[in-house]
Amino acid sequence: MIDVQRFLELIRQAAEKAGVFERIDAGDAAIRCLAKDASAEAWYSIVREGNDWRVRLATADRWLSESIEADLMHHGDPLEELIEEELIDLDHVVAVDGAMPQVKHFRSDDRLYTFENVIAMPDDTDRAATIATRYLLAYEAAFRELGDMQGGDDE
User: Fold this and answer.
1) Is 153 among the domain residues?
2) Containing domain of residue 112, as a range?
3) Under a CB-based contact definition with an 8 Å cutoff, are residues 2 and 128 in contact?
4) What's 74's domain CATH number?
């Protein structure tokens, strides 16, 4: 069974070391990382919902979400492939069968435009933290290149 506090602390330390987030907040069942340079507030997170752990990007800004969607449609690359490429760059084997979990995109009950997927976790805390960190960093690297996640056009 995962030691949740140690799990979140290991992710927090790795996220700080990566230096790609504006701010990192840790709670009892989640870690949230503020995106750097996005045109609007956007948070990457690792959260527990029921028995599942999820990685997500969420923003209240509809225009930021739409700018990401537009880039995905324009370039034609599935989001799962972009994230999987980043995971591979982080030396992560996505799954035994090679299938990246589907990324869901929706507007949550609390009115956040959300991209997320479930992460399969082992019971070993250190190994689970490594996997979750890789997903967090892969999300950041993939989304950083999309839409207005780098501030958008100033023109």
Assistant:
1) no
2) 4-144
3) yes
4) 3.30.1460
3-state secondary structure at position 106: strand
Would you give per-residue pLDDT tens digits along the chain (155 residues)?
Answer: 899 999 999 999 999 999 999 999 998 899 999 999 999 999 999 999 988 999 999 999 999 999 999 999 998 889 999 999 999 888 876 654 456 778 999 999 999 999 999 998 889 999 999 999 999 999 999 999 999 998 755 44
CA angle 34–82–145, rounded 5-degree value? 50
Output the pTM of the full model: 0.92
Q: Would you say residue 155 lies in a domain?
A: no
Which among 48, 47, 45, 4 has a CA at the least distance from the CA of 21?
45
| R_g of the chain, CA atoms, integer Å | 15
Sheet with 42-49, strands from edge to edge, namely: 21-26, 30-35, 42-49, 52-59, 113-119, 104-107
Residue 15 located in a structural domain: yes
Structural domain tally of the chain?
Answer: 1
Q: Please report whether residue 149 resides in a domain.
A: no
